[in-house]
Design brief:
Length: about 280
């Protein structure tokens, strides 16, 4: 097994020397653009301790070696080089990478999910993660990947919803389906009409894009008991579905409106009536 090499540490050393020799070459803002370019160039630079370039060092590894090396970097506290991640990512969801999705160490699992991306081969493991007791940040990351392949994830998401597992995440996933399915539409509409999270559920209807929801949204936005946040999301959803709502509404006494007003430092007199 190849030794762990702190390529990022080696790059930092070279960068520090380069900056020392060229202190006036770039402004601080320019350095922000130069450093990523230098890092990319470093990937194709021969490194004596590796006997090759950083990119080639990982390109010569098998899928299993790559994933094992990733785990060792994390376990031993050695920074994970972007060159390693990009090589794993370029090969897609190998069996070795899918195997990392069974791990429950947060850093390993988060990296594995991000590297597997929206590859359908990872979906079975993703749903197992959502049904487990991992932290919410990891579940949100998994949800983002499943949204990228929502049509392929739909059936399992509907099944999980029916079982009462992470129902909000399941709604979010199926709302990104592009293929029309009355089961999905009915589920999103029911969640909107019966749930408490009006802004969120309105956003799901907007994301799904079924114009049949327009009359329901237009009726709901007329209610006197909605707050400013609900109004904004409802109006956005209506417009996203091709509709329009122009009736002026007064939210000057609404605490959410006041909070947003204060944060934006807008004059109060500019916002007494709003249709936005």
């Amino acid at each position: 097994m190849k030794k762990l090499i702190d390529f990022d540490g080696l790059f930092d050393e070279k960068l520090a020397e380069y900056i020392r020799r060229n202190p006036e070459k770039y402004s601080e803002k320019q350095w922000e653009n130069v450093i990523p370019r230098l890092y990319k160039q470093f990937g194709d630079t021969y490194v004596a301790v590796a006997g090759t370039t950083p990119k080639q060092y990982y390109a010569d590894m098998t899928d299993e070696e790559l994933c094992s090396t990733l785990v060792r970097h994390i376990e031993q506290g050695v920074p994970v080089p972007d060159f390693l991640c990009r090589e794993i990512e370029a090969r897609g969801s190998s069996d070795a990478l899918i195997g990392l999705l069974d791990r429950r160490e947060e850093e390993i699992l988060t990296l594995a999910v991000n590297l597997a991306g929206s590859d359908e081969r990872a979906f079975s493991a993703y749903f197992e993660i959502l049904a487990s007791d991992v932290n919410e940040d990891i579940k949100e990351t998994v949800c983002e990947q499943l949204k990228g392949g929502a049509d392929a994830a739909k059936e399992r998401a509907l099944t999980m919803y029916a079982r009462g597992v992470e129902q909000e995440l399941m709604l979010e996933i199926v709302s990104r389906c592009r293929q029309r399915d009355d089961r999905v539409y009915d589920l999103l509409l029911e969640a909107f009409l019966t749930g408490d999270e009006v802004p969120m559920h309105a956003s799901y209807l907007a994301a799904y894009g079924d114009e049949r929801a327009l009359p329901v949204l237009l009726s709901y936005i007329e209610r006197d008991d909605i707050n400013y946040l609900e109004f904004r999301e409802l109006k956005y959803a209506i417009e996203a579905l091709g509709g329009e709502y122009t009736t002026p509404r007064d939210f000057t006494s609404d605490p959410y409106y006041q909070e947003i007003l204060e944060q934006s430092r807008m004059p109060v007199e500019d916002g007494k009536k709003t249709d936005a």
